[in-house]
Structure to design on (577 residues):
């Protein structure tokens, strides 16, 4: 009982203490959370002051005044920024008025001298930016812009479009007109007196063109940009061109002459034309450039190829019968017609080695040819290893290397193309060869297959441009060594050529890639070995499928039974009628 009474007496005291504590906490909270003014804390409404409502209204009005002041300050800052921006804009306009256009292409017709000077400055800047004097580093082989070759009669093209023809007649008149114009300019420039020599100058004509792929005198024309709007060159630009005497060119002699070109759409058109020189194996090269305007002469130089030796390197394993066919081509084109050539055979293994050596020795005796090297390696075949060993084995002066295969057919003029399209430290040559389809499919029956020379024609029914292959290439040995050679970790078939090609693309060397008429890949049955890596095996099978026949011809084989059934039905229906 006493305990219960004590608890009842103690309970009011505890409640009182709790009420006092809650009031104290409320006062502290209100003091801490009351908004402050700029210089002092805003006071709470006092007990003897205004009412609580009036106090809070005063607080809100003060806060609103603070926000108004802040907004006014921001508006002043924005106005200052606008004024500063307008001043900078006026300064920029004044600078633009003081200086000419960045490209120097503003033509003020009221001041023709200034207009011509501005135009010439622009044209020279385009020459400097274009890939004329040196190469441009590229990331992959897909970034390289290939050349295309053409004559006045035909265009040899990699991008065949809807026609699917590897060659076709140039039906566009502007293409023919541009070619004639450039040759006129080149011949006119060569025939222009230099004012130094007292001897009677030689008169150049179109028949002096060289650099082709067949044993006739063929011209070279390298073009790097579209050739439209050529006829208006003098009306669109106030730069007079050198007059050309039209009678010096016999245009009928230009039939079936080679030129190559490629398009680079933001710079201009580059032309390289090669003429016969004053002596055998001497040439005269003239380089022209059209930066979306009149053609400009870049350089005029003499090129002497009399002492330029080509070392043809062939890796080989077995395949003695194919080597016999290769040596017939090598003897006729390389030894008899060209004469400035060396052959290096890198042989893997010992099987059929004596047969290959016997073929070499017989050719050496019959043709009085001593410029060959035979290297034998007792290891598994590797194309990259064979070419690398053959290139490094050479101990003479710097030489042009032609990496070749035993199933390749080349002409003597192609060897000249190798020399003219390579330059140590400057250029390497990656020709696109024409790959032959299976003759037994093309010509139907074995009895009707024509001779090899008659098969070597460029038609969509007979073959295709092997634009996915980079194995046949010409470069100087010094460039090959400096670039690091082949990747010797790659074994077997495929891959090593693309790796080397990418190295050149990543360098500052200019890569000349163009289809050529004088380099053929002869058809042979391809064996894809089980030892190849999955990637190599896939590449090999793709190459095998493409080598057999065209898409249309393969389709005829696939649907052969349906076609025969249709023909039989046609015969039956004709008999009934």
């Amino acid at each position: 009982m006493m305990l219960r009474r004590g608890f009842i007496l103690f309970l009011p005291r505890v409640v009182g203490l709790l009420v006092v504590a809650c009031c104290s906490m409320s006062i502290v909270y209100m003091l801490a959370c009351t908004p402050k003014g700029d210089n002092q804390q805003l006071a709470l409404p006092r007990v003897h002051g205004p009412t609580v409502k009036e106090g809070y209204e005063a607080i809100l009005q003060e806060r609103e005044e603070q926000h108004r002041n802040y907004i006014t300050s921001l508006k002043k800052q924005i106005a200052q920024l606008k004024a500063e921006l307008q001043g900078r804009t006026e300064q920029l306009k004044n600078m633009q008025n003081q200086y000419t256009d960045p490209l120097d292409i503003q033509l003020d017709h009221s001041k023709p001298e200034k207009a011509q000077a501005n135009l010439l400055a622009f044209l020279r800047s385009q020459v400097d930016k274009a890939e004329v004097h040196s190469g441009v580093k590229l990331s992959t082989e897909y970034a390289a812009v290939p050349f295309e070759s053409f004559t006045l009669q035909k265009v040899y093209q990699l991008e065949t479009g809807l026609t699917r023809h590897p060659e076709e007649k140039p039906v566009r008149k502007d293409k023919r007109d541009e070619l004639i114009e450039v040759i006129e300019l080149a011949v006119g420039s060569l025939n222009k007196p230099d004012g130094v020599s007292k001897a009677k100058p030689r008169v150049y004509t179109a028949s002096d063109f060289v650099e082709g792929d067949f044993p006739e005198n063929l011209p070279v024309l390298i073009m790097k940009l579209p050739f439209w709007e050529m006829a208006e060159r003098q009306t669109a630009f106030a730069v007079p061109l050198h007059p050309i005497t039209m009678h010096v060119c016999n245009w009928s002699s230009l039939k079936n002459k080679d030129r190559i070109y490629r398009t680079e759409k933001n710079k201009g058109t580059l032309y390289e034309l090669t003429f016969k020189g004053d002596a055998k194996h001497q040439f005269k090269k003239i380089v022209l450039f059209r930066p979306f305007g009149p053609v400009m002469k870049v350089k005029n130089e003499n090129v002497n190829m009399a002492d330029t030796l080509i070392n043809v390197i062939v890796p080989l394993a077995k395949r003695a019968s194919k080597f016999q066919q290769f040596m017939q081509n090598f003897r006729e084109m390389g030894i008899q017609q060209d004469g400035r050539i060396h052959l290096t055979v890198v042989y893997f293994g010992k099987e059929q080695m004596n047969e290959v050596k016997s073929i070499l020795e017989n050719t050496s005796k019959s043709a009085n040819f001593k410029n060959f090297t035979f290297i034998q390696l007792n290891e598994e075949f590797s194309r990259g290893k064979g070419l690398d060993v053959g290139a490094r084995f050479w101990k003479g002066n710097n030489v042009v290397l032609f990496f070749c295969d035993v199933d390749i057919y080349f002409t003597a003029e192609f060897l000249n193309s190798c020399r003219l399209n390579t330059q140590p430290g400057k250029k390497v040559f990656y020709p696109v060869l024409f790959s032959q389809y299976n003759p037994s499919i093309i010509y139907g029956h074995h009895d009707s297959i024509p001779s090899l020379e008659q098969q070597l024609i460029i038609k969509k029914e007979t073959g295709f441009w092997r634009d996915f292959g980079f194995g046949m290439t010409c470069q100087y040995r010094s460039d090959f060594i400096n670039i690091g050679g082949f990747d010797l970790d790659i074994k077997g078939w495929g891959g090593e050529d693309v790796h080397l090609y990418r190295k050149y693309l990543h360098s500052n060397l200019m890569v000349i890639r163009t289809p050529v008429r004088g380099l053929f890949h002869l058809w042979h049955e391809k064996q894809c070995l089980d030892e190849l890596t999955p990637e190599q095996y896939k590449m090999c099978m793709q190459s095998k499928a493409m080598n057999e026949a065209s898409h249309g011809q393969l389709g005829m084989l696939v649907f052969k039974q349906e076609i025969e059934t249709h023909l039989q039905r046609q015969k039956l229906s004709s008999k009934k009628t």
Summary: Residues 310-556 form a domain with the Spore Coat Polysaccharide Biosynthesis Protein SpsA; Chain A fold (CATH 3.90.550.10). DSSP finds 16 helices and 16 strands in the chain. The first helix runs from residue 2 to 33.
